[in-house]
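Annex B. Sample input.
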Amino acid sequence: MSLSESVVRWRYRFLPDHVVGEVLNKKWVDSAIPFIALVLVIAIFGSIVPRFFELGTLANLSQQVAELGLVVLGLSIVMISGGIDLSVGSTFALAVTTALYVMNVEGMSLGAGLAVTLAVGAACGAINGLMVGVLRMRAFLTTLVTLIIYRSIFDMVFPDISTDIVMNAPDSPAYEFLGIGQLWGFPASFLLMVVISLALHVVLSRGRYGWRLLAVGGARRSAHNAGINVRWTVFSAYVLCSIFVALAAYLFSARIGSAASDVGAGMELQALTATVLGGISLGGGRGSVAKALMGTVFVLILSNSLLALAIPATVNALLLGLVLVASVFLDVRWVKNRHKLLRAVYISPTFNKLLPSISTEDGPMKPNDRLREVGVIGLGIMDGAEDVVFDRDDNLYTGSRHGDILRWSPPDYTRHEVFAHIGGAPMGMVFDEAGNMAVCVGGMGLYQISPQGEVSLLTAETNRSWTSVADDSVMKLADDCDILPDGRIIFSEATVRFEMHDWYADALESRGNGRLICYDPKARTTRTIVNDLVFPNGVCTSYDGESVLFAESWACRINRYYYAGPKKGTVERVIEGLPGYPDNINRASDGNYWLALMGSRTPALDLSLEMPGFRRRMARRVSEDAWLMPNLNTGCVLKFSEKGEILESYWDLGGQKHPMITSMREHKGVLYLCGIFNNRMGTLKLPDADQNWCGVDTYWSKRT
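Annex B, continued. Sample output.
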């Protein structure tokens, strides 16, 4: 390796550019702007406002946070569902009036007064929800109208009862404690808000209702097609919003004990500013409790600090309006351009110089047309059969692009049935000793199918890497699997950074994003055994009883992992410099192994792997259909020995029958060929092979 190559190699090893994309892809990045804004406003006003950090000031702030925070949380629920509620200020005024009247004048208990107040809020929310959610009226105009209506009702009712409210006092110590009492040094209202916030966080992030809100806000039509009752979800969001507002009003009334004629006026501006600044998307489908509360604290600190500095209220409102405009601008620009930014920085190629290709001029690798005239099974019926496996009754099993496992009946394999519907993209398959099928499903994990066709999940998570910024515990592209003599399943995950439909992006990176994983069905544990593999693909338990063979597609090599014996836990190279990209590996009847090459290497792509900067610019500036791609139009099957010696090859140079071969399986003298992009399966008779050989028997012995 030259000095320049060494410099490039070490530069990309010690400066992991991909970390930037992984950081930007984290959900908490959306909280960066409100967090930075909050820190700045605390730093600025903390230095110029007298007694900013005194306990009395902080206690008063926490009480205000409890009240406005509940309003903001309620508005956040509506906005996450894709709506908006401009009537929160007027609803707040009505609820405050209700609370003061029932507690001061009627002398109700804490529970009764709270129930009546929440009922008033729920009624206001139900009206909004009925018109927006059920009648499908526009949320902005509808809630603007209800803002005027609710405020008008308040203006008519409040003058008649204001004197009675002022002349009477509540007869409920619990009510007074809720307003001014403390627990462990914190205002009781603040602690109540914290508990409610935690509960709402669980609902939004873990609860089915929260997922439905996010789904409705993200795409209502898709949510409807998925079986979600969109109208009920939107209706309930408005009702919950107004209930939260009513609860905030109840806390306000308990703290203040009275109300002015302008109570709640301008609250919609404060609440909307807090929600948008906190990262609650105006378009719906995005938001969290933490971000909403950060926006709340920002707005209150700004308003209270300006008031402490004797800034006129009109200037305060102006500044809040400017903050709202800036927040809306950032929200719109971020939502519009986040995908473009992530696409520009997420793909981060690295240096990957391949060894020179094994010669194909002569010897066992010399191209031929041995696959030109093979037989065909399931022409036009098979769709995306990535792998094939046989049971002891000679039944043939394949996956399909539609998420089905198909069973084809012997002897001619013209009849088929859906053995099981598993979903996702079924890929590598293998049978255990009891006749259960283990299946790797792209995007879903490792599954098991019983002999009766019952589907169950084995594992979809493994241990998280300590050095990974992104959470790589969840599997994205489980690819191929095989079973050890003790029943453990070893399988490959091709990449932890890209989904199945983005496999070409992993080829462009050639970073080593894959891993080898072991699942123990007895202990029901999953652990990663080998990391940093370059698109690991085929996995095959070797005949030696100590190791597993696996392929690294973009590195064009075959490796061996020792799971037992004196070399346990180590990895060694078996074949390097393959002329194509290896895929599945399976046993042959003569004690050797079959290997599928899903495509052939090209000089242009090989050269580009030594130029990460070039590939980075290509990913950013050129459309995906113009990228350098692996050549997947020339299928090939190799046979190699235990020591890695290539014994023979089978080519289809024209790509007429099998342009891409992802797997092959020998069974009773016939080699069956699969391709994930093919609409058929090939059959090649092997006259020199054992005509009674069944792969399952080599694992678990012949059935007696």
